[in-house]
Amino acid sequence: MAENLADLAGGFATALTPINLLWVFLGALLGTAVGVLPGLGSSMAVALLLPVTLALDPTGALIMLAGVYYGGLFGDSITGILLNTPGNSSAIAATFEGHRMALDGRAAQALATSAIGAFVGGLIATTVVALGAPAFADLVSAFGPEEFFALTVFAFVATAFVVADSVLKGLAALVIGFTVGLVGIDLQTGTVRYTLGVPQLFDGVGIVVITVGLLALGEVLHVASRSKHASGDRLVAVQGRPFLSRAEFREALPAWLRGTAFGVPFGVIPVGGSEVPTFLSYGTERRLDSRLRVPKFGRGAIRGVAGPEAAGNATAGTAMGALLALGLPTSATAAVLLGAFEQFGIPPGPLLFEREGDLVWALIASLFIGLFVLVVLNLPFAPLWARLLKISRQYLYAGITVFAGLGIYATAGSAVDLALLLGLGLLGFLMRRHDVPLAPVLIAVILGPLAETNLRRSLAISEGDVTTLVSTPITVVIYALLVVAVVLAVVGKIRRRRSADV
After folding, report:
1. Per-residue confidence (pLDDT) for residue 232, from 0 to 100
2. What single string gives the DSSP state of each residue in 145-162?
3. Which residues contact 37 (CB under 8 A, 6 or more apart)?
4. CA-to-CA distance for 155 and 162, rounded, in angstroms?
5. Element (DSSP H or E) covering residue 451
6. CB 318, CB 132: distance < 8 Å
């Protein structure tokens, strides 16, 4: 514990330098600005701004992306509260009561509840990461190739069965991701795979090109294909005080803490996402509200915003810990961040705290700083963010397309990357049209090569004995948990279909 605190103090010394403070501030500012725009959201904010950070040193780039990560999450909630259109699925639960508060003339209080909830949930989760991630990394450092292969299988199957509405569509997305991830030279044999004879593809398809193409350009093409661009939702003006009264704070505080308790564990579940803890928090607060003499839910209950917001940001905080300690992304946004690490040649995982201790502790310290920056930015400036929602979509998405193309070309100066960007954008568009999830593609692109390497290494060591993949207690536990997760997911889907039929 004392050693962790000393390392964290060193991280603050690095993160509090003027240049790194600037990157934290810019990341939070840009993340919120992109996250608040209709149809974008936090994952696209990170993907869209990833090319910008490649010109920075690794520490500054990752610090800025961490700010973008948290800033985008708050931007998701602004659109939900003011426009009844959450920017991401993690902001849906808070939208129910948040938009009702806005219609009741309490938009400023709803945004303040969201900002403080994000701060409380993120602060507690980041503290858990700072104190627990190094010990967890030490534990995982004993993992061999069999254990890491089991973890990647857990992530793949959880993506296909748990996250995707259709198992077949989830598996199809995984296959697409595997195919893209295998392009290039096989590092173990030197064999060229799936390059179509194009020399620029020998190093594989860049993660920046993949994320910007699938997420940003795919969304642009999807919006452009619709016959009606206007959503018809009414933007609610932000009026009144951008802070909570003492009574409102006392009412929201227990919900913030309960939401955080829901969110922290879900951040370490492979591809668990933040939808489940936010809805669990919302359901809990609604049940507690029903016991009151005068229930408030349905009329703009502040606890209906406080709990889900804290849960969503707590999940995001511990997802960062899972990314640093395990090297496994537990959400689409975390997958993009993992791609940023790999772009700088810094693979996250158990050895990260030993090999790149200065960087990782500066990153963790910047997460604390970013939370304070977000509160300072978002409490008084929520009306300014609301003005961004008035931008015409035709200008907004045209600007995104130009920015994405310039960012990709500036990264490597390759026309092949621009062609890949267009092709992946079309792929992202088709996947959206047919409701094929994007998260499995990103997971498979990044973790596919890792799974292949560990599988081949395990089989090489055991001389082809397949049983070596389940030869340790850890692998047995991982596969057992996977079976339980799949069974629960299947049972849940069957129940939802039966209730829908009724």
Report:
1. 47
2. HHHHHHHHHHHHHIIIII
3. 75, 79, 87, 388, 389, 391, 396
4. 10
5. helix 439-461
6. no
Reduced to 3 states, what is the DSSP secondary structure of residue 192?
Answer: strand
Angle at 234 between CA 231 and CA 240, to 5 degrees: 145
- Residue 259 resides in a domain: yes
Return the closest-CA partner of residue 336 out of 65, 154, 84, 148: 65
pTM for the full model?
Answer: 0.71
Neighbours of 215 (CB within 10 A): 29
Q: Which of 39, 107, 28 is nearest to 73 (CA)?
A: 28
Domain count, the chain: 1
CA-to-CA separations, 183 to 44, 208, 221, 444, in angstroms, rounded? 24, 15, 25, 13
CA distance 101 to 82: 9
Quote the CA–CA distance of 473 and 343 in Å, as a whole number: 34
3-state DSSP assignment of residue 325? helix
SS (H, E, C) 104-127: CCCHHHHHHHHHHHHHHHHHHHHH
Please name which of 383, 97, 109, 107 lies closest in space to residue 246, comparing C-alpha atoms: 109
Q: For residue 406, which phi and psi values (nearest 5 degrees)?
A: -65, -40
**Per-residue pLDDT at 127 exceeds 60:** yes
**Element holding 184 (H helix, E strand):** strand 184-185
The burial of 294, by beta-carbon neighbours within 10 Å (0-12 exposed, 13-18 middle, 19 or more buried), is given as exposed
H/E element, 13: helix 2-15
Closest CA to 389 of 236, 242, 243, 240: 236
- Six token digits for residue 459: 């089989």
If one counts every other C-beta atom within 10 angstroms of the C-beta of residue 126, the result is 27
Q: Provide the sign of the torsion angle of the four alpha carbons 374, 353, 449, 61, taken in this order.
A: positive
| Position 190 in a domain | yes
In a domain, 484, yes or no: no
Q: Give the dihedral sign, CA 86/92/94/99.
A: positive
Q: How far apart are CA 178 and CA 444, in angstroms?
A: 5
pLDDT tens, position by position, 99-124: 888 888 888 888 888 888 888 888 89
**What is the SS3 string spanning 252-293?**
HHHHHHHHHHHHHHHCCCCCCCCHHHHHHHHHHHHHHHHCCC
Domain assignment of residue 304, given as a range: 2-141+149-228+249-471
For the chain, what is the radius of gyration of the CA atoms?
22
Task: For residue 479, tell me if it sits in a domain.
Answer: no
Burial of 258 (0-12, 13-18, 19+ CB in 10 A): buried
Over the stretch 133-176, which tens digit does the pLDDT of each residue have?
777 766 666 678 888 888 788 878 776 665 556 778 888 888 99
- 3-class SS at 369? helix
